[in-house]
Structure formats: C-alpha cells, structure tokens
C-alpha cells in the first residue's frame, strides 16, 4: 500500500485478499459436481440432486447467518441507525496542501464550503447525504501551547468551529479526521493516548458530528486501549458524535486479532480493509475481500454499527459507467456507508444519477440494517447477492465480472432460495421497469453488461399457501426474522 510519502514506518496488519471462501456452502455450490456451466444457466434446466441439497443447506445457513446479524449490542450513542451518508475529501483530494498552485482543489476551508454548498443545493442533502467530512491534512503541523490540535491557519483561517457553523446552517453535519498514534498517516499531529480526552473535547467544542480515527503510527496494544478510550471520551462530551474506527484495518480485519463484538460496542462504523483508489481493480479487490470474508463480516453489521468498505469513487476517473453502477449496487447490498469522494462541483449528470438513485438509497438505508451476502458465484464469472429488507422486501444484485459482452443469465427466485410458493413484484433499480407477479418457480433472464450489474428490488405480493418459512421466523428467542425466508 502506498502511504503517500510518509517517511516513517506506517504499516497495517498483513491484509490478505486471499483466504477461504467464507460462506463455505456457496463455495460448495461452485465446486459442486452438478455442473452449472454456460448451458447450465439455461431456462428450465433442473438442478441436480446434489445442488438441491446444497441449496437447502445454503437456505438454513442463510437463516442462521441473518439471525446472527440481528443487532445484539448497541453503541451507547444511538447514532448511525442506518449507514452514514455524505462526502469525504480523501480519495479525490488527498493531501493536496498546495493552495498556491492549486487553490481550487487544495485541502482548505474553501473546498469544504463549496462542497457543503453543493450538498445543500444540488439535491444531495434531501436524499440523506448529510455528512461533510474532513480527512487528513487539515491540521497545523504542531499542537498549540495548550496541547490542543489546531487547523492549519493559512488553509483554515476561520477555524473548524466556523466551518461547523457554516455546515450546520445548511442542515448538514461535519466530520473530522484524527489518528490514534504519534502522527496521522499524512504526518500531521496524531492523538496519543494522553491526548484522547482533550481531542474528544476539542472536537465536541468545535461542533463536530463525526470522527474518523485512523491508526497509523500506533501499536496493536495502543490501539486496543485507545479506540475504546476514545469511545468513552466522545460519550463523555455529551455531544452526539458518530465514531468511525480504522482499528480493524490495522489488524488484518479478521479474528482472532479483530473482535467484531467489541467493535460493535464501541464504534458506529469501521474500516476493515485497504484504502480505495481510483480504479476498478481497487473496487474489485475490496469486493473480493468483503465477500470472501462475509461469514465474519456480515453478522457484525447492524443499526448503529457498520462495516465500511471505504469511499464511493463514482464521479472520478477510474470507473466506467457500468463499473460506477456496480460500485453503488454492491456498496448498497453491503449496507455500506455512502461516503462520496468526488468533485461535486463538476460531477457528470451520469454519475450524479447513479449516486442520487432514490430506490437505491432507500435500499441502502433500510431500517433493518441487515448486510447482504453473496449467494451465487458461478464459474463463468456471474455472481448474485441478496440483501433482506424490511417488510418482506429484498434486493438482488446480479453482477458480471466478465469482459466479453453482455451476458444473459437465467435463473429463478426459487433457485436463489426464495420461498417456492411466493409471488413477487420486481422493480429494476436502475431501469425502473416493474415486473409484476413473478412466481418463485418462474425462470427469468437478466442481461448483465461486462463489469456491470442488474439490480432488483423485490416485494412479496402473495403469501405462500403453506407458510413454513413464517413458522421458522417465530422460532424461540423472539425478535425479528427476515421474512424473505
Ligand atoms: C489512511 C486511511 C485513508 C486516509 C489516509 C489519510 O490511509 O485509510 O482513508 O484517511 O490515511 O492519510
């Protein structure tokens, strides 16, 4: 990973994109002797017995996994009941501090004023994009005489409090960046253990609404102490401050080094993995890691506590139109925070349309907050993802990793583990087209463009005659069980 010119050592735990396919059963489906090659996806082809048995196993696995996803712990602050949405400077504007050479794009209050205006005036705020988040390189190189963090006086002459006031006056919220360690990743003053309380108080006094606490230049021991300590310090300020922890990303993102139960108790969201870059390769590596490890990650998410696969790069330079649609759909199915990092002053109408898709946002912000899973990984580079939603709805994403031509994928809802006798109304999330009365047993085809998606929103319109799945939802233990199953 490129740590953008920091001279000092700054290492994350060995993060590997490899490892086991987390949902073992879905792996079984790929390697099953029941060949589902190109031809196997054809209409009406019966599943062989082995695959049918596996799908039954998948179904019960899904029930269990989704039950585990139900929030059992909640952060005391009661915030981020749905994934946070907004804008963040890092991926697009990085640590550009040369305001002489590049006044329009450097990290300065001007940039944030302008982005706040865009969020407020171009329809973003009404859709839920409410946070405007400073990332690294906002601070002066030294703390002041009282040991307090201060913004760079040239680039933020009016100070962070004035920026927060500006943002709040437009009905938005302000996020800030800190780093548990000697320095931030960009070499600015970090928050050492002895600074935790003071920095939390400073942020609260400035009127900050979210804190991203990075983890460069600190040891695993310091992180294990510091991240929970910051949670307590933020709570003690009495100001509601959403807390985003980069802790797991520095510890490889997986157990036993990462304890997702503890994380969900102290953080509202957390970066699990590598930084996103402006490329499709980067998006794919993140998607691979998150879904390879979905057994661990998916149950960790829920209202108030989210996995964060990093910013949306839609509107920048690295993604095609299809790839931009894919990032949006896959982040939504992951119940990921929607933090755009793009230039909202010059964003293209096409990118804006993707980011402002109402139905997409409604799905992302579903109140149940259940993260979706990959349920099919075909050998021929087609994947299917499902996310259960409130009121017996669900979202399906059909994703093509192919690089040849649009691919006609044929399946049925029953094959995708929907109740056999249910009937659905389907809306294509991007195209808007509605298909009425789709029975689970009906075969259907979707045409998926290379590196693109087809995304469906499904509402059940008829109850099955034999509500066997409803009975299972009322299993001892109470609480909600996704009606999808
Ligand atoms: C790390 C983080 C990024 C960004 C930079 C800033 O790399 O993961 O998201 O905050 O630091 O230096």
Summarize the structure.
This protein is an alpha/beta fold. Helix content is 31%, strand content 18%.
Describe the structure.
Helices cover 31% and strands 18% of the residues. It has 485 residues and is α/β, with parallel strands linked by helices. Strands 7-6-5-4-3-2-1-8 form an eight-stranded parallel β-sheet. It has a six-stranded antiparallel β-sheet with strand order 9-10-11-16-13-14. The protein has a two-stranded antiparallel sheet with strand order 12-15. Mean pLDDT is 85; it is low at 1-74 and 466-485. The chain binds alpha-D-galactopyranose (GLA). Alpha-D-galactopyranose binds at residues 90, 135-136, 184-186, 214, 246, 275.
Indicate the proportion of strand residues.
15-25%
Cofactors, ions, other ligands:
alpha-D-galactopyranose
- Unreliable residue runs: 1-74, 466-485
Largest sheet: 8 strands, parallel
Calculate the terminal CA-CA distance, rounded to whole Å. Answer: 41 Å
Q: Which overall shape is indicated by the principal axes computed on the Cα atoms?
A: globular
Quote the average pLDDT: 85
| Separate helix tally | 16
- Helical content stands at 25-40%
Q: List the strand order in the largest sheet.
A: 7-6-5-4-3-2-1-8
Which radius of gyration do the C-alpha atoms yield?
23 Å
Number of separate strands: 16
* Alpha-beta content class: alpha/beta
Oligomerization status of the protein chains: single chain
């Amino acid at each position: 990973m490129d740590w953008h010119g920091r001279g000092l050592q700054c290492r994350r735990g060995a993060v590997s994109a490899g490892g086991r396919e987390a949902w073992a059963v879905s792996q079984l489906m790929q390697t099953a002797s029941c060949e589902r090659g190109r031809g196997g996806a054809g209409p009406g082809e019966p599943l062989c017995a082995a695959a049918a048995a596996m799908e039954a196993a998948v179904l019960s696995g899904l029930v269990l996994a989704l039950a585990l996803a139900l929030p059992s712990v909640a952060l005391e602050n009661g915030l981020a009941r749905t994934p946070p949405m907004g804008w963040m400077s890092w991926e697009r504007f990085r640590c550009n501090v040369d305001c002489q050479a590049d006044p329009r794009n450097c990290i300065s209050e001007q940039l944030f004023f302008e982005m706040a205006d865009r969020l407020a005036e171009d329809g973003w705020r009404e859709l839920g994009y409410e946070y405007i988040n400073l990332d690294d390189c906002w601070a002066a190189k030294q703390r002041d005489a009282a040991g307090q963090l201060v913004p760079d006086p040239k680039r933020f002459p009016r100070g962070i409090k004035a920026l927060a006031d500006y943002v709040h006056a437009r009905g938005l919220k302000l996020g800030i960046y800190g780093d548990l360690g000697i320095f931030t990743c960009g070499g600015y003053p970090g928050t050492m253990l002895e600074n935790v309380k003071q920095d939390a108080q400073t942020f609260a006094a400035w009127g900050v609404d979210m804190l991203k606490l990075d983890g460069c230049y600190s040891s695993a021991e310091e992180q294990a102490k510091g991240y929970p300590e910051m949670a307590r310090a933020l709570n003690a300020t009495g100001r509601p401050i959403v807390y985003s922890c980069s802790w797991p990303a520095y510890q490889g993102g997986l157990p036993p080094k990462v304890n997702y139960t503890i994380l969900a108790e102290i953080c509202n969201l957390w970066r699990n993995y590598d930084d996103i870059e402006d490329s499709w390769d980067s998006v794919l590596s993140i998607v691979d890691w998150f879904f390879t490890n979905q057994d661990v990650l998916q149950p960790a998410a829920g209202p108030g506590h989210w996995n964060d696969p990093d910013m949306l790069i839609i509107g920048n330079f690295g993604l095609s139109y299809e790839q931009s649609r894919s990032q949006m759909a896959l982040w939504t199915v992951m119940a990921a925070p929607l933090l755009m990092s793009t230039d909202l002053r010059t964003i293209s109408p096409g990118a804006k349309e993707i980011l402002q898709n109402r139905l997409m946002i409604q799905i992302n912000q579903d109140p149940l907050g259940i993260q979706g899973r990959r349920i099919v990984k075909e050998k021929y580079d087609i994947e299917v993802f499902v996310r259960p939603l409130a009121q017996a709805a669900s979202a399906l994403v059909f994703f093509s990793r192919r690089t040849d031509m649009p691919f006609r994928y044929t399946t049925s809802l029953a094959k995708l583990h929907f109740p056999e006798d249910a009937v659905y109304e389907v809306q294509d999330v991007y195209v808007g087209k509605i298909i009425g009365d789709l029975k689970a047993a009906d075969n259907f085809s979707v045409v998926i463009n290379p590196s693109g998606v087809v995304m469906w929103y499904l509402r059940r319109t008829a109850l099955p005659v034999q509500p066997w799945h409803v009975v299972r939802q009322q299993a001892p233990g109470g609480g909600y069980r996704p009606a999808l199953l």
